[in-house]
TrEMBL record:
Positions that bind S-adenosyl-L-methionine: 115, 135-140
Family classification: Belongs to the RNA methyltransferase TrmD family.
EC id: 2.1.1.228
Protein task: Specifically methylates guanosine-37 in various tRNAs.
The protein's enzyme class: transferase
One of the GO BP terms on file: tRNA N1-guanine methylation
NCBIfam families (UniProt xref): PRK00026.1, trmD
Gene that produces this protein: trmD
Subunit and partners: Homodimer.
Record localization: Cytoplasm
Protein name stated in the entry: tRNA (guanine-N(1)-)-methyltransferase
GO MF, one annotated term: tRNA (guanine(37)-N1)-methyltransferase activity
Length: 233
């Protein structure tokens, strides 16, 4: 079957969102991947379909109930037959990387749990072997935007989603470095010229310039990436 994303969320209306546009949207329309939502509210308990309760031990906010989230994940995983991972979007998670996107693109799909409030009952994460993933060191209102970030980065790597023009080989992070700057016409804009070497037609010199710019940018902006790549600072 085709690669599929199963989203467990209180806000199914947030999907496909931006994933329904441009490259990922075209690929969705073309059947290169599928997106399915599982509405947590429909698993809610009691007359009011409650999904959360106060934290055990006291404290601020509300926690999503294990007896709500558990059955919702089970419903999503019925389609996985044990063949794909379950992610929980959380600022406590492992930082998301291009390598994780590549790994997900090699699976048959993914189930993504989007939290709201103070989080999800820890027993659910343990029970299903859920992987907690963060998209960065800041706190979002909920996991939906984070889930879309992970899916966008993954779906563009699926076979046939990117054309040849948008190559994944030369882009930032594919080689552990930041990409060189880009320019296009007009040659002169507001008194700023395109660097001469790019207008020279000398492809060896252009390649050398781009590599030097990539190294310069990475050293300046991302000393962490530069150290990981070269072992130097
Ligand atoms: N949910 C709230 N903040 C988040 C973050 N930084 N990454 C992933 N999921 C989140």
């Amino acid at each position: 079957g085709v690669w599929q994303a199963r989203i467990v969320t209180l806000f199914p209306d947030a999907f496909p969102g931006v994933l329904g546009l441009s490259l990922t949207g075209k690929a969705l329309q073309d059947g290169r991947w599928q997106l399915h939502t599982h509405d947590l509210r429909s698993f809610g308990v009691g007359k009011h379909r409650n999904v959360d309760d106060t934290p055990a031990g006291g404290g601020a906010g509300m926690v999503m109930r294990a007896d709500v989230v558990g059955p919702a994940i089970e419903a999503a995983q019925r389609f996985a037959r044990g063949r794909w991972p379950i992610l929980y979007m959380s600022p406590r998670g492992r930082p998301f990387t291009q390598e994780m996107a590549k790994d997900l693109a090699r699976c048959d799909g993914v189930t993504v749990l989007c939290g709201r409030f103070e989080g999800v009952d820890e027993r659910v994460l343990e029970h299903f072997g859920v992987t907690e993933v963060s998209i960065g060191d800041y706190v979002l209102t909920g996991g939906e935007i984070a889930a879309q970030t992970v899916l966008d980065a993954t779906v563009r790597l699926l076979p046939g989603v990117l054309g040849n023009v948008e190559s994944t080989v030369e882009e930032s992070h594919s080689n552990g470095l930041l990409e060189h700057p880009q320019f296009t016409r007009p040659a002169l804009w507001e008194g700023h010229a395109i660097p001469d070497v790019l207008m020279s037609g000398n492809h060896a010199e252009i390649a050398k310039w781009r590599e030097a710019e990539s190294h310069r940018l990475t050293q300046r902006r991302r000393p962490d990436l530069w150290a990981a790549k070269t072992g130097k600072d």
